[in-house]
Amino acid sequence: MQTPTLLTQKDKMLANYVPLGVITPNNVFENKEEIEKQLKQLKAADVDGVMLDVWWGIIESNGPKQYDWSAYRSLFQIVQKCGLKLQAIMSFHQCGGNVGDIVNIPIPKWVLDVGETNPDIFYTTLSGERDKEYISVGLDHKPLFGRRTAIEMYSDFMKSFRENMSDFLESGLIMDIEVGLGPAGELRYPSYQENKGWVFPGIGEFQVRLLPLSSF
């Protein structure tokens, strides 16, 4: 039997990432000194960059097209100061209730409010239970959100990101941008939420019931 290979400190550091809650749900960048210390450790371990979720539910929480990028700009500046690159994830889903979620960041409240009167904007089980972590793809082109469609909301968000982070884009700090496309950021139907009682490796249930949209 082979003797297990012990991980070096460098190997351990390679597994690190920017914590989910580094920007709080209230859009505050806390523990700046500790985060900077950790980023410097990553740089010392020859890590090239870090990945970071950019949460829709944080940035546009105050109302439609009311974007507040100040906390994220502060974080980006520290990443740049530490000599690291950045992969930004446009996260249009809820954080909380899925595997690995350690904080709760819902989608914007004003979007959830639309769901109070039109609950069919969410994926639904056969028993009628709604999944509020992402807007159903059946609503992508329905102008239900202050005369905007879901696609227009996502597009406006990313345009604002480009405008407000143009200096980081031009400097090469942001080397990659990914876009979340569904529950947990994945292009899929919701099916195995831990907050609904799912336990690995149990069998989930696809929430694929899309009610007729003609009534909208």
TrEMBL record:
It is an enzyme of class 3 (hydrolase). Keywords: Carbohydrate metabolism, Glycosidase, Hydrolase, Polysaccharide degradation. Pfam families: Glyco_hydro_14. The lineage of its organism: Eukaryota, Viridiplantae, Streptophyta, Embryophyta, Tracheophyta. Its EC number is 3.2.1.2. GO terms for molecular function: beta-amylase activity. Belongs to the glycosyl hydrolase 14 family. This is Beta-amylase. It catalyses: Hydrolysis of (1->4)-alpha-D-glucosidic linkages in polysaccharides so as to remove successive maltose units from the non-reducing ends of the chains. The keyword Hydrolase applies. It comes from Coptis chinensis. One of its GO terms (biological process) is polysaccharide catabolic process.
